[in-house]
Amino acid sequence: MATITRADLAESVRQTAGLSGAESYKLVDLFFAEVSESLVRGEEVKILGLGTFKILEKKERMGRNPRTGESAIISARKTISFRPSAEFRSKVANA
Asked: What are phi and psi of 89, to 5 degrees?
């Protein structure tokens, strides 16, 4: 299974849009920066045909250390959630 990197995305943009390598890399970086900044501000990011990214607030809770079995408090935190669109799920299921 291959991994797609920013450089791979930039190369794909370069070939598709006809931009220079530097311009396509900058475009990919700007896209990811905007998505990141929007999530930090607490906004949902919806990308048509892909899905929705959002921040979830997890409350403090009791947990257990699986190695020792000892109870421990898991602190409150924020985490990123991604919910794929129906179109994207269908593409993946039929691939």
From this structure: -60, -40
State the DSSP code for 76: P
Dump strand ranges (E) for 9-50: 45-47
Q: Is 41 helix (H, G, I), strand (E, B) or coil?
A: coil
Let me know if 10 is exposed, middle or buried by CB neighbors in 10 A (0-12, 13-18, 19+): buried
Residue with tokens 């920066």: 33
**Average pLDDT value for residue range 64-80:** 93
pTM, rounded to two decimals:
0.77
Nearest by Cα to 74 from 84, 63, 88, 66:
63
Type of residue numbered 21: G
**For residues 72 and 64, what is the distance between their CA atoms, to the nearest angstrom?**
6
Separation between Cα atoms, residue 63 and residue 80, nearest integer Å: 20
User: How do residues 13-69 score in pLDDT, each as one tens digit?
Assistant: 999 998 999 999 999 999 999 999 999 999 999 999 999 999 999 999 999 989 999
